[in-house]
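Supplementary Methods. Inverse-folding protocol.

Structures were first reduced to a discrete structure-token string of length 434. This string, shown here, constituted the complete conditioning input.
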């Protein structure tokens, strides 16, 4: 239970709890030890004092003197007319003990005197001792509470001091960005555990940056080098379409041309992302960007034809006017991938592209996406158990990557009667101007 409780707390709270619990355990043990020691000393000292008192009283009686007793102390002698043992104390055991009489506590000491052969019994009222014990108990409780409070305050101060470099390191790691490298972390910390952690982060960031830079250069180089062969394919398709071809061959050439155009769009998208993530300026086909409506109308022509070829209805709906201007390549890539995804996963019914102020939605009445797969659907190479079409599970991952880079937001929800709705909210960060 305690282990589970500690695991749920932050490291700073664990330090405070450790200090407080240590104070509780040590303070309680010390208080208990003091109480036990007081009782032991009390019993030992009183037993010795009573023993000496009995010897003195016996000697006084043999000498015919009136015995002297301490305040609050009474002595009784068996079969002694003036000091016979009261009925309440006749069952007292030999030696030192505690008894009650009429609601009051007494220490009782009994002893046989060998010389006189009589039984002596001394009774001492505990009232004064109880008062002192109560005072001692209050002092112990106040001391224990003060110790716990002091340990709590000390734990807070120590936790703040210990966690300060950890918190600072955590913030530096949280602010880390590959496109905006930070200075080495280890130089700001002492050669201790936190410093070793900072050096480990430095090494990990260095390896991560190197790997990402290699990936970025590869993506940029491949995307750049693919431009020429894709252009050749597109031009060849255009020339072939001007010749005398059969209907089947002409359709195959158009399919090649569409695939080449999609590859060119992906190539430009990857190149734009690689430049953006490296801090370089993004190349634009149109310097002023493109409006959401203009791009959607152009894309609708292509995707309406693809939907019709599959027997699906395609609808472009406008619910509000968006005056923002956006990066044409990136916005087209996001829209294309969402429409392609809807086309893949819809066998019968409809696909709808809805435009609104600051956002657009892609809806379909296809097979939908189970709730268990929604969190993973935007990860690379994830297609789900109902995968359709020829995709490799990269489309939605690319959508998420572009949205993150542009400051857009992509959300997914299931429609009541089947199908999915993807909503892309276009933030100001992704706008080129109005």
């Amino acid at each position: 239970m305690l282990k589970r409780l500690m695991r749920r707390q932050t490291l700073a709270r664990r330090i405070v709890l450790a200090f407080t619990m240590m104070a509780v355990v040590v303070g309680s043990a010390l208080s208990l030890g003091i109480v036990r020691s007081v009782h032991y000393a009390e019993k030992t000292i009183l037993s010795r004092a009573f023993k000496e008192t009995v010897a003195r009283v016996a000697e006084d009686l043999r000498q015919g003197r009136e015995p002297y007793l301490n305040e609050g102390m009474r002595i009784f002698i068996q079969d002694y007319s003036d000091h016979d043992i009261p009925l309440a104390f006749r069952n007292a055991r030999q030696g030192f003990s505690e008894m009650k009489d009429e609601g009051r506590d007494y220490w009782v000491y009994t002893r046989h005197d060998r010389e006189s052969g009589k039984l002596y019994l001394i009774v001492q009222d505990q009232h004064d001792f109880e008062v002192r014990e109560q005072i001692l108990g209050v002092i112990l409780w106040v001391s224990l509470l003060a110790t716990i409070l002091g340990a709590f305050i000390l734990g807070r101060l120590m936790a703040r001091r210990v966690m300060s470099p950890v918190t600072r390191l955590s913030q530096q790691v949280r602010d880390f960005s590959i496109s905006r490298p930070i200075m080495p972390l280890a130089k700001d910390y002492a050669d201790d555990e936190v410093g070793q952690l900072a050096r480990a982060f430095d090494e990990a960031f260095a390896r991560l940056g190197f790997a990402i830079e290699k990936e970025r250069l590869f993506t940029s180089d491949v995307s750049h080098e693919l431009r020429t062969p894709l252009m050749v394919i597109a031009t060849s398709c255009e020339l072939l379409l001007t010749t005398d071809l059969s209907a089947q061959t002409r359709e195959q050439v158009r399919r090649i041309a569409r695939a080449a155009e999609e590859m060119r769009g992906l190539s430009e998208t990857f190149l734009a992302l690689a430049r953006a993530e490296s801090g370089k300026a993004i190349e634009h086909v149109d310097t002023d960007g493109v409006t959401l409506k203009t791009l959607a109308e152009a894309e609708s022509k292509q995707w309406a034809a693809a939907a019709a070829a599959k027997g699906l209805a395609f609808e472009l709906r406008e619910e509000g006017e968006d005056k923002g201007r956006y990066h044409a390549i990136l916005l087209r890539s996001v829209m294309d991938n969402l429409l392609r995804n809807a086309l893949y996963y819809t066998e019968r019914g409809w696909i709808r592209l809805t435009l609104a102020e600051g956002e657009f939605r892609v809806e379909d009445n296809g097979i939908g996406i189970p709730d268990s797969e929604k969190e993973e659907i935007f990860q690379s190479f994830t297609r789900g158990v109902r995968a359709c079409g020829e995709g490799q599970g990269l489309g939605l991952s690319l959508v998420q990557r572009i949205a993150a880079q542009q400051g857009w937001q992509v959300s997914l929800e299931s429609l009541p009667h089947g199908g999915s709705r993807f909503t892309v909210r276009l933030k100001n960060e992704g706008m080129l101007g109005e």
